[in-house]
Specification:
The structure is a homodimer.
Chain A (H helix, E strand, L loop, with lengths): L3 E9 L3 E3 L18 H4 L2 H6 L9 H7 L5 E7 H4 L24 E5 L7 E2 L5 E5 L3 H12 L3 E4 L3 H9 L5 E7 L7 E2 L11 E7 L5 E7 L4
Parallel strand pairs in A: 1-7, 1-8, 3-4, 3-7, 4-6
Antiparallel strand pairs in A: 2-9, 5-6, 8-11, 10-11
Chain lengths: ~220, ~220
């Protein structure tokens, strides 16, 4: 069965998955890198960058499950880049350089479709104007029976949770108070009723929460 | 040194320390008992009720530190009871029966002072209209050199955090999304800069976060 999964989704104590004031210089706004420092220390992250070393404890173990069995990703346009509205610059190909870490088809949700972009290493960006259900249908087809990852940002994850399309949700609670930004939890009252949850703290100070849809475990 | 401490303060994933619609029948509003179920299973809670049994794992270890070394409590009026505005019913003596679990002076913050109420077992409720700083001055005097506990609710804890008067903060994050209620974190952006923090998950599914003011450890 092809599952829909969210991994390594970092939020602050007050539930924000990104800060305010996102821009080319500050992809996470005033949150800067504070939501993701736990990840930079992991072996998984180092490998993505072609580097050695990094921790191999619980933070790494949780981070590592990110790519396993994934056949496609769906992401919001704000994760893909800082532009809003009609595309001013079609040369923009994401934050990740010529060989992005996805290595699968990636469906970017946008009200402004544009031609697909093929990158090195198997990543192909498709730009679609679609509901969560329709985006998932296309991603599943492209994934060839494998799982689909919902890559964020917060608004995109929230939309898929609202539509009850997520089977596995891994949230990393970072012990900071951002005060403002984009909330993961807004509008999701009672979410826990659809999931079994588990919590484990890492020595980096973050807490890994996993939500597994009841009936899929 | 007399410290100011918060213990066993439960919040939802979205940061609410109480639900919406608090009343005599529902002291925590629509949250009902969901924020405190982890506590009911502990030996500490059973003992408070004069009962035996209960778990003795990490949830209990964290809960148990609640009373140790405390000489006075400060609480908001909404923790004391469901009445708002001028007191209609001075016979109301709190939710806790004739022998409340505090066993110390308790300062209830209210814009409507009333005569103090002496209970069995050493608890005396004082009703004062005071700033956090002034309330703490009175509580410290009554505590005779011991620590002062800030007992909640969320608005009261927040006011003391805003005034930077808290030395030790123990928050219990419960894996539920309440969606609405009284937020603990609102207005506290950057709180973590003043504290060292630690996280540990309990088998009940909650995460215990402790914040220790830098310089007091």
């Amino acid at each position: 069965m092809s599952l829909v999964r969210v991994h390594n989704f970092s939020i602050s104590l007050d539930g924000y998955g990104t800060g305010e004031g996102q821009s080319l210089e500050s992809p996470f706004g005033h949150a800067a890198d504070r939501l993701h420092r736990w990840f930079f220390g992991t072996r998984t992250f180092r490998r993505m960058q072609g580097r050695e070393g990094g921790g191999t404890g619980v933070d790494d173990a949780m981070a590592r499950t990110w790519a396993d069995g994934i056949g496609a990703e769906i992401m919001g346009r704000n994760k893909f880049g800082p532009q809003r509205g009609p595309w001013q610059d079609e040369d923009w190909k994401g934050w990740w350089g010529s060989n992005p870490p996805f290595h699968t088809p990636v469906f970017v949700l946008t009200h402004h479709p544009r031609p697909s972009v093929e990158m090195e290493g198997g990543t192909v960006f498709h730009f679609i104007d679609a509901t969560p259900e329709e985006a998932l249908r296309q991603a599943r087809e492209a994934a060839g029976g494998k799982d689909v990852r919902i890559g964020g940002g917060p608004r995109t994850v929230r939309a898929f949770l609202e539509a009850d399309l997520i089977d596995h949700l891994h949230v990393v609670v970072v012990p900071i108070v951002l005060g403002r930004g984009e909330s993961l939890w807004a509008g999701l009252e009672g979410l826990e009723e659809r999931f079994d949850s588990e919590a484990v703290a890492g020595p980096s100070g973050v807490t890994h929460l996993t939500f597994t849809r009841r009936g899929t475990a």
